[in-house]
Design goal:
The protein contains six helices and 14 strands. The chain has helices spanning 28-32, 111-114, 120-138, 214-226, 276-283, 297-306; strands at 39-44, 47-49, 76-82, 88-94, 108-110, 150-152, 157-159, 166-167, 172-180, 187-193, 204-207, 230-241, 246-255, 268-275.
């Protein structure tokens, strides 16, 4: 695999210092929740509060961080790390079924919708908070014996008081790949998922199976979904994607035989070779098809190929 160049995927930028060595300190979260310097990112489901930009021409939304005293009762708390100034950064997570926990001057934005427009540091903090927060809300019981677990390590592990097992946030590796042509440098193969509208196309993706390498997963998934055998795999970057708990690992790969492309008819409803001009028009919002949003690594793969990244 070659080393990727160009900008990282939208959610893979440099964020805060996770300060993992601090997590085991007894009473860390309780102490930080009384720290006037602490900054808290509150999550309501998969959405975070936004500030209202003073500059109407501001290009990027901005997350609204609050002090611990502004957070109402009922949150699941976690220590995310420290910002460049050394201030602690916490997450306070509420279920989407609860009422909005506080006012958001700029509204609430989901990671899918705004992640690609945030600064690199804020995007990274958001995806860390959401990935950890979903686990804290969704996995309170020991999967081995069903006992309610105790949160430890400042939100990063759970201990079962009955069977003694330790549980940690789960991350499932998944591959995502854009397919280049064997003969035409200006052609890219994309697919339309059966659950989407017919006008929406993206890269091919799937989870790595037990005992399978990422490279083997690329070859298998593309053959299953698009009917083509691929080679010349080129690693293009990775990013966390907490829907629900994935690490998306992006590749470009080249089809051995362009004519073999055929949708599986189950997960993928249609496959199509797009020209570079067609991709460019759709990236600009002027084409006939819809491409992935800026927060996704699929957008990075497609835009990078369009810009000439091999």
């Amino acid at each position: 695999m070659t080393t990727p160049d160009g900008p990282p995927p939208a959610l893979a930028g440099s964020g805060i210092d996770r300060a993992a060595e601090e997590r085991a300190a007894e009473g860390l979260l309780d102490g930080l929740r009384t720290d006037a310097e602490a900054r808290v990112l509150v999550l309501h489901g998969d959405a975070a509060p936004l500030t209202r930009a003073d500059d109407a021409e501001a290009q990027h939304p901005s997350l609204r961080f609050v002090s611990p005293t502004e957070v109402p009762e009922g949150a699941q708390w976690a220590f995310l790390g420290r910002d460049p100034a050394g201030a602690p950064v916490l997450a306070a997570v509420f279920s989407h079924e609860a009422d909005a926990p506080l006012e958001a001057p700029g509204g609430w934005g989901s990671l899918r919708r705004i992640g690609g427009d945030l600064s690199g540091g804020e995007a990274s903090t958001f995806v860390e908070a959401l990935s950890l927060g979903r686990w804290l809300l969704d996995a309170p019981y020991c999967p081995a014996c069903g006992t309610l677990t105790e949160v430890r390590n400042a939100g990063w592990s759970r201990h079962c008081p009955h069977c003694g097992r330790e549980h940690f946030p789960r991350t499932d590796p998944a591959v995502i790949v854009a397919i280049t042509s064997a003969t035409d440098p200006d052609a890219l193969l994309l697919g339309s998922n059966a659950l989407w509208g017919a006008e929406r196309f993206s890269c091919f993706a799937g989870f790595a199976e037990a005992g399978e390498s990422l490279e083997s997963a690329v070859v298998r998934e593309v053959r299953e979904e698009a009917g083509v055998t691929v080679g010349d795999l080129r690693y293009r970057g990775s990013q966390g994607w907490p829907y629900p708990r994935s690490l998306m690992v992006g590749f470009l790969a080249t089809a051995v035989d362009d004519a073999a492309a055929e949708a599986d008819g189950e997960e993928i409803a249609a496959v199509r070779w797009f020209t570079r001009d067609e991709v460019g028009a759709s990236l600009a919002g002027e084409g006939e098809v819809l491409l992935p949003g800026r927060a996704s690594i699929a957008h990075r793969l497609i835009a990078g190929w369009h810009a000439g990244a091999a």
